[in-house]
Amino acid sequence: MTEIKWWLSTEPRRLVDWLLTNRSPHDRKMRLFAHACSAHLRDIAPDWPQAKYLGLGEQFIERQIDRETVGRCLSPMDAYDMGFREPGEHHFKDYPPPRHMAASSFLETCWEPRGFERGQRTIEYAWCFRMASMTEDKLHVALARGDEAIDPSSLHPYANLLREIFGPLLFRDVLIAPEWRTSDVTALARGVYVEKAFDRLPILADALQDAGCDSDEILTHLRSDGPHVRGCWALDLILGNPWREG
Which residues contact 123 (CB under 8 A, 6 or more apart)? Predict the structure, then answer.
């Protein structure tokens, strides 16, 4: 995978497979990616019943609650369907809409036990993307024919979310000079992150530039239309959050 291919690819399954195989992405980053995918599906798949648990996913990722607390907050049926069982098994009653299944499985990934094998995680992501690409009528066709019935164009947003979280960092270092992290810059960055106030990113870019930042790459990303989510590579860089393990 070259950096050019990374930026141009519209196939998230290939990108995720390459990322997990050839890099060591930070556990937090991958959980935030799964959460962003789940939130995207909430926006395009109305009436997803587990959408009420998205906040729990964020709290777990931020280490504000533990897995036991998550389990106590889920209804008995949701606890059964959303990860409090053997990983890799999907027990959905009467086949809910495929995008609902994908959203629930992405959310489940947010609080899966640490140490989940990368090979199994790749399989899980592939299954999620397959379901995310289908409407309910396509699921029945796929089950009848045994094929994937995937709409590739519907997967483009997930590739964009992956790039939003990792940016160019998989290929080269992008440096933040210590003097750019002024009190104003740090306060603005933390506020954007905590409040998910991504509309303030251009203001953060201005403050960063005033502090002496001359990185067009960072400034351009912060001023772009996004999508922007928690885990944004440029915002994490300012906050000092790592993109890889170790």
Answer: 88
CA torsion sign for 147, 126, 110, 196 is negative
Backbone torsions φ then ψ of 171, nearest 5 degrees: -115, -25
User: C-alpha angle with apex 89: 85 to 93, nearest 5 degrees?
Assistant: 90
Q: What is the dihedral of CA 140, 36, 105, 167, to 10 degrees?
A: 100
User: Tokens 């059964």 appear where?
Assistant: 80
Dist. CA 228–CA 95, nearest whole Å:
32
Q: What is the pLDDT of residues 6-36, one digit of tens each?
A: 999 999 999 999 999 999 999 999 999 999 9
Total Cβ atoms within 10 A of residue 44:
12
Alpha-carbon separation of residue 36 from 30, 152, 162, 213 (angstroms) = 10, 19, 9, 28
Where does residue 176 fall: left (phi above 0), alpha (psi -120 to 50 degrees), or beta otherwise?
beta
pLDDT in tens, 76-93: 778 766 656 544 444 445
Tracing tokens 């947010």 back to the chain, one arrives at 110
pTM: 0.90
Q: Is the four-CA dihedral 146, 152, 154, 159 of positive or negative sign?
A: positive
How would you classify residue 226: left for phi > 0, otherwise alpha for psi between -120 and 50, otherwise beta? left
Measured between alpha carbons, how far is 27 from 245 in angstroms, rounded to an integer? 7
- Among residues 222, 210, 171, the alpha carbon closest in space to that of 1 is found at 171
CA distance 111 to 63: 10
Do the Cβ atoms of 215 and 174 come closer than 8 Å?
yes
